[in-house]
Amino acid sequence: MKLGVLLLSCTGSPRVTDFDRAWVHRVVGHVAGYFLEQSGGRVNMEFRVFDWFQLPHTGQEWNDLGFGAGPVVKPIVEAGLGVDLSPYDHFALVIDKFDAMLAAVSPQHPSYVHVGAQSLDPALLQHEMGHFFGAAHANRDTPSGPEEYGDPYCVMGLEGGKFSFVHTPLNRSRPDGSIDVTLSDSGPGMAASTLRACGWLELGQSGIDISGQLASGLRRATVQLDALRGGPAPGAGEKVCAYADGVVPGQRLLLEFRSRDGWDRALPQRGAGWIVAHLTGPGNRSAMSLQIGAVEAAPGAAVVTSKGAVQISVSAASASAVTLTAEVMKPVPVNRAAPAVASWSPNRLDLFGRGLDKSAFHKAWANAWHPSSVNWEALGGLFTTSLAVASWGVNRLDLFGLGLDKAMYHRAWAAGWQPSWQSLGGQFVSVPSVASWGPDRLDVFGLGLDQAVWHKAWAQRWYPSADGWETLGGKFIFPPAVVSWGADRLDIFGVGLDKAMFHKAWGDGWFPSSSGWDFLGGGFTSPPAVCSWGPGRLDIFGIGLDGGMWHKAWAQGWFPSQEGWEPLGGRFLSPPAVACWGSGRIDVFAVGLDGAMYHKAWANGWYPSPAAWEPLGGIFASPPAVVAWGPDRLDIFGVGKDFSIWHKAWDQRWHPSPSGWEPLGGGFL
To answer: What are the start and end residues of each CATH 2.120.10.70 domain in the chain?
Structure first.
């Protein structure tokens, strides 16, 4: 390629930048070095930056030319500067005026790229010139479809959103002596999918074909990959990509390891680098690039791709190579009732489950399991769903369940169990949800036969009556979730018929109204889970249409937006369970495609990463239940494949081990 760079301004439109031709020459030289390395030495770009030239066109006349400007202004520049542009086969038109920003390749004349001078930095030019070589935009999979430019691990991603670094030799001094870094961004490198689109990654030479291993037998393959630092030179021996056809019909899966150095030095500071999964077409120069998962290169880290359900697990990693296992996950039925758990004080747990006979069973922890580690206390009743429990203070429990007659039933503990189950009336189709904002206060919710949410409160008596319920409107497909961040405050969440999330709050009245609900967007296939670490703070989680976890927070406003949700990666078969042990701390759990429990924590950032999850082992057939009795303490429960309940605790470390679980016996549906 021979590139001519034309620095242009318009008549009557003063320039808005102050850089000279020499600085632009350094920028383009840096970009030429980028493509020399990314191409594995296949591209040695020749270029010349010509001096600034004022066109006879006004700013509006330039705008009117649009993407047809190149062939019009080329002869004008030749005549005005007295230069011959015929040796050049590609051109960058750098236009300096107040309304010229960003860049794009001309669709009418694809050998011309238009660049706003205010946006001229290496990362932008690397992206646009990538199109010259055959690369398309690097997209990312989301529940609503591909997000264009959404892959931050590739230079063909979004300017300002990809993992670029500041190339300090291109920093410029401002008149006040400060340093301007706004036009110094560069990188990251190209993904394997975009290198293939450019013809710079030959899978026969530099790839490992795992198609057969992922298609039969255990559907598992373990490979060692060298770091991908552009396309290996012809004849080089590095293996920088694993690939498989058929995992996703009609598409090719690519797995690559990106070391956090060179053009990728700005990748997030976790592990030795990042393992990234992409889908592309089966053709050798397919332009498709869809990122479907990423995980830090650290032993024990794992992620499940958003398409194809391939779990990528890391067993060894260094700056130069990584050993990973790719496994196509088998569906695991998670169809048993989740346990219910509450804690009224440190070192106290009360655990409940629906037994094989559909009655309620109870076990308590107070320095030891009671009645024993494997035995359970029978509480009677006959129930069609999971139970729900709340504690409003020491030595108080309130247990709720949906009876065979679809009515709500209640039983309380206050230094002893209430003699029998009390019917609270109503007709329900969902698991109950319950919250308490203080002593002698309960709020109970459930989905009625009309799919609306119904509510009953206890404040020294049942409101609206012992067997009456208050309708809160809406129509929902999953049980609601409720939380209280303080006295006289409730927040209820539910998934509507359109699979979006809806919200209603109580604060001296129902908001937005007694029957109305606030629309929060998203698309979900599970009930929500919600927690609050203090007044004015809410965190909501749900399994999206892609099977991954999605999150939204309230802190004086919705984050990331009223209708937007933050993707947290993973692939799950169960709804989430969530707990907060203190301000600024969240712990989320769910059962993955392999039946194991997975965990992610928030403490000024997501651990192990925004997309990755910590595997906790086990084999589960129910959603998890979790409770925190105080700072740095968690207790997680689930029904195993053997119908018994299993337990793991966090107390500065996992007990009995990171992957081990304590059996608690019993038999549960």
So the answer is: 340-663
